Amino acid sequence: MTTYSTGDVHRFHGGGTEYVYLAGSGGIVALDALSAQILSRLEQETLSRSALVSQMETDGFAAMDVTEGIDELYQLHAIDDGGPRAVSSQSLPQEFPLQSMVLNVTNQCNLSCHYCYEFGEDKVATPEGKKKFMDWETAKTSVDYFFAESRGRKAVHITFFGGETLMNFPLLKKVVEYARREAERRHVSIDFSLTTNATLLTPSIIDFLAENAIGVTVSIDGAKESHDAFRIFKNGRGTYDVIEPKIKELLAKHKTRPIAARVTMTSHAMDVLGTYKHLKHTLGFYEVGFAPVTTSPNRLYSIAPAGMDSVLGQFQVLAGDYLEHAKRGEHHGFSNVSDTLAELHQGVNKALPCGAGLGLVGVGPSGDIAPCHRFVDSDAHNLGHVSTGIDREKQAAFLKRGNIDSKYDCHTCWARPLCAGGCHHEAFVRYGDTGHANLHYCDWIRAWTDTCLQIYGTIAAQNPAFLDHFSERKAS
Amino acid sequence: MKHLRPVNAKAQRMTEQAEAENDIVALQSGRSTAVKPHVPMGCSIVFSPGWEVDSAGGTAGLCQPVERDIYDCYVTCFWPAQVPDHLNNAPDWTAKCAVATKDWRNLDIVFP
Q1: Per-residue pLDDT tens over the stretch A346-395
Q2: Cβ contacts of B25 on chain A, cutoff 8 Å
Q3: Nearest beta carbon to residue B18 from set A76, A349, A471
Q4: Is A34 on the interface with B (CB under 8 A)?
Q5: How far is CA A349 from CA A343, A407, A442, B94, in A?
Q6: From the candidates A40, A75, A403, which should be mutated to test the interface with B, based on the most B CB atoms within 10 A?
Q7: Dihedral, CA atoms, B55, B58, B61, B64, nearest 10 degrees?
Q8: Given a cut of 70, is residue A323 above it in pLDDT?
Q9: What is this model's ipTM?
Q10: Is the pLDDT assigned to residue A458 strictly greater than 70?
Q11: Nearest CB partner across the interface for B10, out of A27, A34, A84
């Protein structure tokens, strides 16, 4: 006899509406009173079809409607009948043209931030004996390789990264000019972005960035006190006083792209609300994204689990602020929310946590190809060289390792469509294996995803037009 | 769909597909609710070791050598396999083995 139980779902509500998040697919559907009650009944116990129908009849629903509701829920895998269901894991397409390339134009930096994943205690890079600055020959080969490997794409993206990106600004300039010409010749659109610590910004660099509509992300950890705790020059001096006027000038002159701040949270910098307020309102960044420092657990600056709870609490308060803005149709700069809402709105269901090694690669100063910028210059994670291309076997091994299919721990988690086990690099630093699920922040991810789902549900109920912002899938 | 309203883009596609499928099913016999028999995957084509030893720690004297019994015989199949008693005495036996092909070395010997 067929018995029904709840499927792989996560229920949530927002704006007075009941929803269910379908963990097998990433779909979000709104429930009516009947379907919500069916799920509630099945949360109590598994029931045969007839028992379920008669229980629902005592709840005041008509049997005909109930059977319809059961079939609908079953079709979307919100409930199971215990029978076998084909769960096919989609294999990655054979041909996956590149969409983004991160060009590490140098591995040198003028700062000495303690927590740096490139130079700090948990670094994976092995830069000894390799080029410190990318030369023009390598950069040109990289761009040519990128265009060749992105065939079929209408829009591509190059990100400049370091080290400190602006330590090799002359090369950056040349690459932008060359890549633009090539893109035009090949009839594809291209855009650029970079990440910088802002210490080396000059008026002429700012003009160049504005004229070329180059997206800028500034690494900054908040107001002076928290920023200067880790983001220091080699002589130990904090960098805040140097970058503040430069950032103000950047924000005043560069209007062709929104300028973002990217905050690394540490045990010393956990004041999300204060940091957001400072960066958004005092300095005037368009948006602010937060990420906990990547670290092995025993570092002094790593955030202990209790600290992450407090961060989550502040995230939720700031997310509430986001929601109030969204209800009025106004922009809010907390990008952790908008990034998640964009993915929820599309209903992404990831086989891999990110595009690293698939649509995106990192290229080191010597032309070595890495899965992403975080693995650049690491011999253990090298995927090839721009002159010879990606080693397909290494690439396949990397992608297989990081695929959700091989992360057993994730298979029962409802947050897996978005998380897919989390960052390859985080996993490597924490567990020594890029394919290990990032189990140290599972609870956090689930709590945060639930918060974002509630926000999504509330917006969908009260100001659905706001979600049109997320209809276009992000190009990168 | 009458009781479920798709909200995001994925759910929209899913409901469209489900409704399209309904059209076809309506012309045929409908979805069967009978439980289909469980057909185990062919044991011989998968790599899934299982480990058991006798009271002296050896494997040679077992009535079936360990090489004949594999992890999957026990987990997904009906076979009374030569693996540790996963219900009572060694409940965490496979805790460190997420994927047998990768983690089989973590399947430790269990002494009676």
Answers
A1: 999 999 999 999 999 999 999 999 999 999 999 999 999 999 999 999 99
A2: none
A3: A76
A4: yes
A5: 9, 15, 17, 28
A6: A75
A7: 100
A8: yes
A9: 0.86
A10: yes
A11: A27
User: Two tokens at A5?
Assistant: 């139980």
Write a three-state SS string for A227-284.
HHHHCEECCCCECHHHHHHHHHHHHHHCCCCCCEEEEEEECCECCHHHHHHHHHHHHC
The region, left, alpha or beta by phi > 0 then psi within -120 to 50, assigned to residue A377 is left
How is residue B86 written in tokens? 């996963």
Buried b (16+ CB within 10 A) or exposed e, A128-167: eebbebbeeebbbbbbebbbebbeebeebbbbbbbbbbbb
Write the pLDDT tens digit of every residue in A125-135.
888 889 999 99
- What spatial distance separates the first Cα and last Cα of chain B, rounded to whole Å? 56
Cβ atoms of A401 and A433 closer than 8 Å: yes
The residue count of chain A comes to 476
Q: What distance in Å separates residue B11's CA from the closest CA in chain A? A: 4
Report residue A308 as tokens.
Answer: 């992450």
Q: Which residues of B are catalytic?
A: 69
pLDDT tens column, A215-254: 999 999 999 999 999 999 999 999 999 999 999 999 999 9
Determine which helix (DSSP H) or strand (DSSP E) holds A311, and give its type and residue range: helix A305-327
Worst-scoring range by mean pLDDT, A274-283, A362-371, A404-413?
A404-413
Q: Which domains does chain A have, with CATH numbers?
A: 3-80 (3.90.930), 100-334+360-370 (3.20.20.70)
Query: Are B10 and A408 an interchain contact pair (Cβ–Cβ within 8 Å)?
Result: no
What does pLDDT average to over chain A?
93
Contact B4 A76 (CB under 8 A): yes
Please state the φ and ψ torsions of residue A305, each to the nearest 5 degrees: -50, -40
A62 touches chain B (CB under 8 A): no
* pLDDT mean over B87-110: 76
Lowest mean per-residue pLDDT among A10-19, A281-290, A403-412: A403-412
Scanning the structure block, which residue is given the tokens 């199971």?
A: A80
Considering only CB atoms, B8 lies closest to which of A2, A31, A346, namely: A346
Residue B72 has pLDDT above 90, yes or no: no
**Residues in contact with A76: Cβ distance below 8 Å, sequence separation at least 6, in sequence order:** A22, A25, A27, A29, B4, B11, B14, B15, B18
A29 to chain B: which residues are within 8 Å by CB? 4-7, 11, 15
